[in-house]
Specification:
- By secondary structure, this protein is of the alpha+beta class.
- It folds into two domains: 38-114, OB fold (Dihydrolipoamide Acetyltransferase, E2P) (Beta Barrel); 165-419, no CATH class.
- Helices cover 62% and strands 11% of the residues.
- The protein has 17 helices and eight strands.
- The strands form two sheets. The protein has a six-stranded mixed β-sheet with strand order 5-3-2-1-4-6.
- Strand 2 and strand 3 form a beta hairpin.
- Helix 9 (226-243) packs across helix 11 (272-291) and helix 16 (383-398) packs antiparallel against helix 17.
- The model has no long low-confidence stretch (mean pLDDT 89).
- Its main location: membrane.
Length: 420
């Protein structure tokens, strides 16, 4: 069955969604007015990163990222701060509602005092990861991979050179792998008890519900990271639609998840990570719509061809928005077509090694690999082209030639920017 039976249901859905969105924004504005009523806001915060930088005059300063229960604050300081918990004060005079709604903004921070707090579960897990690595850089990499912690400028640059930022940003790819891992581990034990005590139960539904519950717990640990939040919502909606016999691989399903996510968290409107996450799923659906033939699964040669073409299609189609926000380009980014499949082995292996206390086993090879890629240049995308790209997505859904043109345009810009 289709998601909506008629246009009236679509209208009702968007009216209700618009009302919920307005209420969510209104609640945010109410909280904002309470903050603005005071000259400064006192809050407890966790220092996520303190990175050294140089001013135009050659003076050293530090860029700090503080995380409070409500938002993240970017600020500058003359002295380096160690990661930990702090009591801080923020002036509210120059705090605007748009910045507050984003959930992250730049602000002066003063009266900074280190405080002693009980580490959260996430902080304890991050520390356990770091303890397994002699290199802080490796600990930082795995901490970002497992718990979405910030990256230093150096590591961020190396990851961009390889074009694997999407592999490190926890999203639907990771959720799918985690789902497969848990299903594989639980399938036999559950079947054993099912056959003896509750044969009337549906194994796939019960295991899916249990794994989704674990996913919700992981989402809470990650503090509702936007990309993973979207992925989790899609998996929950997909499960509900599947058991009700409604079509899953449809653009309406993606739209439903996006609208629901924005209604529950309006700040996602300003999240680049959320935008990329949704866009990646969109192009997966576009490829399935225009090139996915069930008969091709009967041929190993065609399946292999699809595996390569699919990765190249998504890689190329994503180039324009990626370079619009992150101009750094490298020929090594093309290797992501193969690295995406290698990650299917690397990700569960790295989890297993950390669970058994051998997380640092691959550090030297991994760090050498990351440092091997070099920056090739920068590709700047004008705003008019970025806007045109987003408008063309509407036509890419219906017209195959438009989808191909979007992908080829991205590939052309990539190779032209590097070699011409």
């Amino acid at each position: 069955m289709d998601l909506f039976e008629n246009k009236k249901e679509i209208i009702y859905f968007f009216l209700i969604a618009g009302l919920i969105f307005a209420l969510s924004v209104g609640l945010k504005y109410y909280n904002f007015t309470k903050i603005k009523a005071k000259p400064y806001l006192s809050s407890q915060a966790t220092l996520l990163a303190s990175e050294q930088k140089l001013s135009k005059n050659g003076k050293v300063y530090y860029s700090n990222i503080f995380a409070t229960p409500e938002f993240r604050i970017y600020s500058y300081a003359k002295a380096k701060l160690e990661k930990g918990a702090y009591s801080i004060k923020i002036p509210t005079k120059k705090l605007y509602f748009k910045s507050y709604l984003k959930g992250m903004f730049f602000s002066a921070v003063f009266d900074i005092k280190a405080i002693s707090t009980t580490p959260t579960l996430r902080q304890k897990l991050v520390n356990l990861v770091y303890l397994q690595h002699q290199s802080p850089k490796a600990g930082e990499l795995y901490s970002a991979l497992f718990f979405a912690t910030p990256l230093s400028k150096e590591l961020r640059s190396e990851i961009t050179n390889w074009g694997i930022a999407h592999l490190l940003a926890i999203s639907g790819f990771h959720l799918g792998l985690l789902f497969a891992i848990f299903y594989f581990l639980l399938k036999r034990p559950y079947s054993y008890f099912q056959q003896r005590f509750f044969p009337h139960r549906n194994r796939d539904i019960d295991l899916s519900l249990f794994i989704l519950a674990l996913g919700a717990f992981y989402l809470w640990i990650l503090d509702f990271t936007p990309s993973f939040f979207r992925s989790y919502l899609m998996s929950v909606f997909g499960f509900i639609l599947l058991v009700r016999g409604i079509k899953i691989f449809a653009f309406g399903t993606l739209l439903l998840c996006v609208v629901f996510a924005l209604c529950s968290s309006p700040s996602l409107i300003f999240s680049i990570g959320f935008y990329f996450s949704c866009l990646g799923v969109f192009f997966i659906l576009v490829y399935i719509r225009h090139f996915g033939e069930y008969s091709d699964f009967k041929s190993k040669v065609k399946m292999l061809a699809h595996a390569l073409c699919f990765e190249f299609f998504v890689f190329s189609a994503m180039n324009i928005p990626v370079f619009y926000f992150f101009p750094q380009a490298s020929i090594f980014q093309l290797s992501v077509i193969v690295l995406s499949y290698a990650f299917v082995v690397f990700y569960p292996l790295s989890i297993a090694l950390h669970l058994f206390g051998f997380g640092g086993l691959m550090d030297s090879y991994l760090l050498d690999f990351l440092a091997y890629a070099t920056k090739g240049g920068e590709i700047f995308i004008p705003t008019w082209l970025f806007v045109l790209f987003n408008l063309s997505l509407i036509f890419a859904v219906r017209y195959k030639y438009c989808a191909v043109f979007v992908a080829l345009s991205g590939a052309f810009i990539y190779f032209w920017g590097l070699f011409i």
